[in-house]
Fold this sequence. Notes:
Elements: E1 3-6, E2 11-15, E3 19-25, E4 31-38, E5 91-94, E6 105-113, E7 132-140, E8 146-155, E9 160-169, E10 175-187, E11 193-197, E12 209-212, E13 218-222, E14 234-239, E15 249-254, E16 260-266, E17 272-278, E18 285-287, E19 292-294, E20 298-303, H1 306-321, E21 336-338, H2 340-343, H3 349-360, E22 366-369, H4 398-407, E23 411-416, E24 420-421, H5 426-430, E25 450-451, H6 457-471, E26 478-481, H7 503-518, E27 526-529, E28 547-549, H8 556-566, E29 575-580, H9 588-595, E30 599-603, H10 611-626, H11 628-633, E31 635-638, E32 648-654, E33 660-667, E34 677-679, E35 689-694, E36 697-702, H12 703-708, E37 711-713, E38 722-729
Parallel strand pairs: 21-22, 21-30, 22-23, 23-26, 26-27, 27-28, 28-29, 29-30
Antiparallel strand pairs: 1-2, 2-3, 3-4, 5-10, 6-7, 7-8, 8-9, 9-19, 9-20, 10-17, 10-18, 11-12, 11-14, 13-16, 14-15, 15-20, 16-17, 24-25, 31-32, 32-33, 33-38, 34-37, 35-36, 35-38
Helix pairs in contact: 6-7, 8-9, 9-10
The site of (2R,3S,4R,5S)-2-(hydroxymethyl)piperidine-3,4,5-triol has 11 residues, from loops.
Amino acid sequence: MAIVYNEKKQTFSLHTARTTYQLKIGNLNYVNHLYYGATIRDEDLSYLIRRYDRGFSGNPYDSLQERTFSLDAQPQEFTTQQQGDFRINSIEVQNSDGSFSFDGRYLSHRIYNGPFTLDGLPTPFATEQDTVQTLELTIGDAITKIRVTLLYSVFEESDIIVRAARVHNSSSHRVDLKRIMSVNMDFMNGSNMDLISLPGRYGQERQVERQPLTHHVHKIRSGRGISSHQQNPFVALVDSTANEEFGSCYGFALMYSGSFLAEAELDQYDQARLVMGINDRLFSFPVEPGETFDTPAVLMTYTHKGLARMSHNFHHFFRRNLNRSKFVRDVRRPVLINTWEAAFFDFDDEKLVNIAKAAKDMGVEMIVMDDGWFGKRDDDNSGLGDWYVNEKKIKCGLTELVRQINGLGMKFGIWFEPEMVSEDSDLFRAHPDWAMEIPGRHAVRSRNQLVLDMTRREVHEYLIEHINRILDSANIYYVKWDLNRAITDLWSNALPADRQGEVSHRYVLGLYRVLDGIVKTHPDIMFEGCAGGGGRFDPAMLTYFVQYWSSDNTKPLDNLKLHYGSSFLYPVCTMGAHVSEASPMVPFETKAAIAMCGTFGYELDATKLKKKEIRACKKMSDLYHKYYDLNFFGDYYRLANPFEQVNLVAWECVSKDKSEALVTVITVNLTVNGPQEYIKCKGLEPDKYYRVEGGTGSLTASGMALMHAGLPIPREIPEYTAFIYHLVEI
Ligand code: DGJ
């Protein structure tokens, strides 16, 4: 049983295959967090909490003269407010009397089979292979009548626990939520922990940062209305000595696509606390009597086997439990060519057909018509919102264009940027109030476009109707859903003045609603997400999109870092990666080998390639298919860190049964007359023997030898050479 409730001890033990999480209804009915780590039995771990008088940390009134019980030092499942806990907190609710206090004590619980779902927010689902149980534990304030239900779904086999919180207003007055976190995680001993996050910027998303957890509040956040290029909604707390293979690692990933917040601190007693949820900046959400408010879900995993295992837990879960599309596993994703870097806005139907014809010989199976096919759109200053075909460019009409492309034996994909509007567009002229703008001010322009008010039903209906009409008008196989600016001017015409604090979150809820109305109603279309590259690449988006465009930066060497960072959380099969004209000094084969560490495709003008280049592309497209299963479904290992001063960058994908592996090595800094370099493989079966093809020949060695002694890399070869080694069990 995944969840065991011990009535006598008042403990709840949440077991996955390799971990245990324990909480307990403790002193004065506060709910204590006791443990999260490697599997233990259902024994009561409350002996870990040592009580002693803590100066300047007060005591709840009903602990009477007892001075050893202070919420400022207790490990808790969720915090109180104004009850003497001065650490970072998980809830701030303004009550009808103006006070901010919340004194949540245990009220009730229930345990049931299957995962929880949330109101308007995406959550993971259980497959037939999963055993999932859920604990709903409700704490409440006896005075204010505000209740919080803590939700825990335990995905046993995957070592994943999904958490969220649901606030219920059972009073007879409106209250205003100022802050509500999805998760609060206390660690009784937080010294010697590092915090890992994935910061970045446009064109350089998901780099890796690791820093010691110290006695101040570490804040990882986006306030941009999207999960953002600048931070990803992921953090890990790991042993300071943890590496790829060893050490305790706690990973947290928030399923949310808007402004988010993760805070972590080491407290005065070297206990650690981490919270994660919706960013509380510019957030104030009223909850009326009888209403509930759901937070987004957080995916948590633990392993003592290092960073690689933490990533595998997420990868496995992302491939299995986030997206029901047939393109996740059952239908192979085609090699695509995207027109953006080939033509930008300058194309017509003839040009597209010519690119498709040339690309066919490269092994390309689908052409994607990017930005510029709709309304009046010859540059990025106009047209957004006008989702009808520009017949000056697509002269034969969309249905006929797709018919011609299909006639070449190729599939067709199309681009949209639904959430935006250009001031120079029919949509804006008809509905200027649909753009977000603060009264009396001009809205901030970004890429010369404004943001549609996604809190409004009529906007949802417009988008669902117009986009679905295009999708149903032709044989469309793929959609790229883009967004090219951050969200500003949080103000909605549809909400009264005292409810404008809802806008940021309601935008995200509106987005999910529109996605439901378009993506979920087109199960035969493959959807890829994009936000000026990877500006909204997050686990919630992956419930709609099977893959996400990693970055507008297609420079292969930059992509080494980007893929490395992304791989902490995201599996190869979710990362859009293309071969482009960028970095001409990097050989084509190397670009392709790097793009194969994602969902492979091209971003260039196929009509301009030489015959030799077309043949090289065909070879690489064939390789993508040859190694598709290994790359998409194998266990991914980071073998060399591109953020360090290394001569080689390398990664590996190993099949689940360990009978096959693919090791990719890129030379980045080879010196003249340099030393012999070796790459140590990972994840192989020690006692199996493997035939290794690649590099400059072939060899046979045991898994043991390949992992502990390594694989010699050819010497005296130019920088930016790629070696792809294929290991097959003999
Ligand atoms: C940003 C995307 O990341 C690009 O790939 C391209 O689709 C442009 N937008 C089009 O405007």
